[in-house]
Amino acid sequence: MSWTRDSLIAAARDAADKAYAPYSGFHVGAALGFADGSVITGANVENASYGLTLCAETVAVGKALSEQWRGKLEGVAVIGGKAGAVGAGNPVTPCGRCRQMLGEMAALGDSDPTVWCIGESEVLELALSALLPHSFGPEALA
Ligand code: THU
């Protein structure tokens, strides 16, 4: 069975419920949708040494790559908010580091995934290439 925009958003929302975010209280979930229908999710993981925090998108990409996943990334959903109010605020857009991490995953499958950033009354739908123009990728090292 394949994913849809809405099922990817639902997967990201479920992932946000598993966030470890005791310091910010801001729970983020990300879902990666691949061409073969697979979905891999991640949630943010904070640390008492604040700067070590891992964002949801980075965790999702780390999970995918460390499971030898090399599929074609076609869609990404990101949602976040205070515990109990995930998705209630403005759309959550991937931070700069996460854009780069998503870019690496996309480069492996030679894709330009659609990124859905979910907010309460607004969903931003953007190509990753629009979020990360003139990106640095593996081809630069070839
Ligand atoms: N966060 C993410 O998980 N993804 C983003 O793209 C932006 C921020 C997390 C990091 C931190 O745990 C919390 O949101 C507040 O910054």
Low-confidence stretches: none
Q: How many β-strand runs? A: 5
Q: How many whole angstroms does the radius of gyration measure?
A: 14 Å
**Distinct small molecules bound, one entry per kind:** tetrahydrodeoxyuridine
Give the overall average pLDDT. Answer: 97
| Total number of helices | 4
How is the quaternary structure best described?
A: single chain
Tell me which CATH architecture applies here.
3-Layer(aba) Sandwich
How many structural units, i.e. domains?
1
Order of strands in the sheet with the most strands?
2-1-3-4-5
Shape: globular
List strands and helices in order, with pairings.
Elements: H1 5-16, E1 26-34, E2 39-43, H2 56-66, E3 73-82, H3 96-108, E4 114-118, E5 123-127, H4 128-131
Tetrahydrodeoxyuridine binds at residues 21, 24, 26, 28, 44, 46, 53, 55-57, 94-95, 98.
Describe the model.
- With 142 residues, this protein is α+β, with helices and mostly antiparallel strands.
- It has a single domain (5-55, 66-118), classed as Cytidine Deaminase, domain 2.
- Helix content is 28%, strand content 24%.
- It is built from four helices and five strands, in the order αββαβαββα.
- The protein has helices at 5-16, 56-66, 96-108, 128-131, and strands spanning 26-34, 39-43, 73-82, 114-118, 123-127.
- The chain has a five-stranded mixed beta sheet with strand order 2-1-3-4-5.
- α2 (56-66) runs parallel beside α3.
- The chain is globular.
- The termini are far apart.
- Bound molecules: tetrahydrodeoxyuridine.
- Residues 21, 24, 26, 28, 44, 46, 53, 55-57, 94-95, 98 line the site of tetrahydrodeoxyuridine.
- Tetrahydrodeoxyuridine binds at residues 21, 24, 26, 28, 44, 46, 53, 55-57, 94-95, 98.
